[in-house]
Design brief:
The strands form 2 sheets. Strands 1, 2, 3, 4, 5, 6, 8, 9, 10 and 11 form a 10-stranded mixed sheet that branches. A two-stranded antiparallel ribbon has the order 7-12. β4 (107-112), α4 (119-126) and β5 (131-134) form a beta-alpha-beta unit. It has helices at residues 16-23, 30-56, 92-103, 119-126, 140-155, 177-184, 213-224, 232-249, 260-268, 271-278, 292-301, 306-309, 311-317, 325-330, 353-362; strands at 8-9, 64-67, 77-83, 107-112, 131-134, 161-166, 169-170, 189-196, 202-203, 207-211, 254-258, 323-324. The longest helix is centred in the first third of the chain and has 27 residues, at 30-56. The protein is of the alpha/beta class.
Length: 365
Amino acid sequence: MTELLRLTDLHEASPGLRRVAHGYATSGTWKRVIYRAATVGWEVLAALPRDAVRAVRPAAAPLRQEDGIRPAPDATRIALYVHYSATGQVSAMVRHQLAQFGQFGFAIVFISMARRIPEDDWQAARELCALVVHRENFGRDFGAWHDVMPEVRRRWPHPDELILANDSVLGPIHPLAPVIDTMRAGGQGLFGLTESLQGGPHLQSYLLLARGNAAVTDLMGFLQTLYVSHSKWLLVQMGEIRLARWMRQRGHRVAAVFGYDRLVQAAVADPAERRLLMGSSARLRDLDRLPADQAATLLHEWPLNPTQHLWHVLATKFGDPFVKTELVRHNPGRLPGVEEWPAVVTPESPCPLPMLQAHLKTMSA
């Protein structure tokens, strides 16, 4: 780790047409843009009739809901943690993450969307949490947060801190406490780990922290009134990307621990990182020939996904506690070097490599 942790306020500029296009075509080719647009269009059209049917039905009750061993009725710090695994197991890595949030003073609401959960794993979650919920697998993380929000507001109507988290990341591979401390030092507002410019400046939603009663109340209101769709694309637009604008329009600070500008500057300053980026996209194949300022400008004109394209910079130079599970399992952008991810997990990592590998096995039935 060579970079200090500090919050950076999100960009306020409009993404522009080129950024929007590249947000859905990270290879930077117009062929990919067209393919992505067609795929998204079909997904949205297929989802809308199902959304309409769901809208007129009564809200589905949880499949199972039970108080945890730590109900914490007077808690002012609440964490909502979304879980999914093909096997239904609550892995040792997930339990470690839950325990960490508990150590930071949060009462934890654990929400699983697995098909079934072994009883031992259900009880293991109860031991760490205030409330454990099993719901149908619909709406992804934002859908889960939306569905549990009425119960959360009933139990804890005036929290001062609210964490939104999920198990879509491996780790922590570096200590999480300094990141939480950095967010808390930012005062009141909405804080996340990574800033993305794709589709417009926003916080990537795998770990968000709202601080201050006003910010938490507005975030709860956003989640409770959110349009939840069968379409992943609509959920991302209405949830993750729209959230930063929503909070900023209500006067809240919105900032990231790992701002996009800082990540880009660190990447273009390192020849090895430049080579990784050159192999990730035809648009970037001449990156090594550009001066640092021009290289950084290019990465703003065609912004990358920080947790995918800049994962190595995050892990090695910034001490990001997490690596995206999707990157490790599927590498959707076909990025070079991803297969070497175990090398960033040091023997001192809070979650050692065998724990992370065991978690990955729970993701595939």
